[in-house]
Specification:
The structure is a single chain. With about 290 residues, the protein is α+β, with helices and mostly antiparallel strands. Helix content is about 40%, strand content about 25%. The chain has 11 helices and 13 strands. The strands form 3 sheets. Strands 7-8-9-10-11-6-12 form a 7-stranded mixed beta sheet, sandwiched between helices. The protein is globular. The chain starts with 10 loop residues before the first helix and ends with a strand.
Length: about 290
């Protein structure tokens, strides 16, 4: 079983295995595997015509096998490898659906630990566009004030404006990151590469231009047949309405044909959690670590 870090040239191969994916975990995308591989030591192997991912340095955790092959046969191989190495088998990125599959394959012999900080926020696309209802009244107000007070436009990210997005991202970094915030710097690196390699990654991007300057942008990709995942969203928070309008306009222009919008997790950040909850998610997609009891 040979694992390797994903490279850009591997992405077309990986996409074939991820097509038809039924899981709603935003981490199950080839693009994010590639972008976060340097920071989380993400690797993959193709085993019996299925893709298995693993992450971690000293302690390895594995994904549920992805593809149309025999998942149990692949898992049995991984478990045997762990036994041979004297390590405990653990699985990351476990959703309720994956937990049910594991119980069906092996019985109720696992401990499953869900972490609220890693739960994905899933919204109805129609609600993110219309912002209808009393509970989203403040979001509509922010957008209406922005529209009333600014000359603005929405543009897809393309070869002509991508460099401007990178310049805006560097200014965002200066405004929001201190040298000690390592995770934020990692996030900036991922955002930069998302813009630079958006075509290879299969990402769609959009931006808001205000008085001629880019003040917000977003990038994402389909997760499965009915869900689009928003991976990156940056805006200048000192401009009232910048975040709400990129949120709304990106879904309107790039993802309105998908029923659900997955906006990923909050990582336990209090401010980010408050912001994500304020949009009234349709559901939280719980994510767990699974290991033998």
């Amino acid at each position: 079983m040979i694992f390797k870090k994903p490279e850009l040239e591997d992405l077309p191969i990986l996409r074939k295995y991820f097509e038809g994916l039924e899981f709603y975990n935003s981490g199950y995308t080839p693009g994010m595997m590639y972008l976060w591989a340097p920071f989380y030591n993400i690797e993959y192997a193709i085993v019996d015509d299925m893709v298995v991912c693993r992450t971690g340095k000293d302690k390895k955790r594995y994904s549920y096998p992805i593809g149309q092959g025999d998942a149990k046969a692949v898992l049995d191989q991984i478990i045997k490898e762990c036994e041979k190495d004297g390590t405990d088998f653990e699985m990351y990125g476990v959703t309720k659906d994956i937990e049910e599959k594991m119980v069906a394959l092996y019985g109720d012999v696992f401990e499953v630990a869900y972490d609220r900080d890693n739960a994905d926020y899933v919204y109805l696309s129609e609600k993110l566009i219309s912002l209808s209802g009393k509970k989203l009244h403040s979001k509509r107000n922010h957008i209406n004030r922005f529209i009333a007070n600014h000359e603005w436009s929405y543009e897809p990210i393309n070869d002509e404006n991508a460099l401007e997005c990178l310049v805006m991202l560097m200014q965002w970094k200066l405004n929001n990151c201190t040298p000690e915030e390592i995770e934020k710097h990692d996030e900036i690196c991922v955002a930069k590469n998302s813009i630079m390699y958006r075509k290879e990654l299969g990402f769609t991007g959009g931006l808001i231009r205000c008085e001629g300057e880019i003040i917000a942008f977003s990038l994402g990709e389909p997760l499965n047949k009915d869900t689009f995942v928003v991976h990156i969203e940056k805006a200048f928070s000192h401009i009232q309405g910048a975040y709400p309008i990129i949120n709304q306009q990106f879904v309107l222009h790039e993802a309105k044909d998908y029923k659900y919008i997955n906006r990923e997790e909050d990582c336990g950040e209090e401010g980010l959690r408050k912001a994500k909850m304020s949009y009234r998610p349709e559901k939280l997609e719980e994510i767990a670590v699974l290991k033998f009891a």
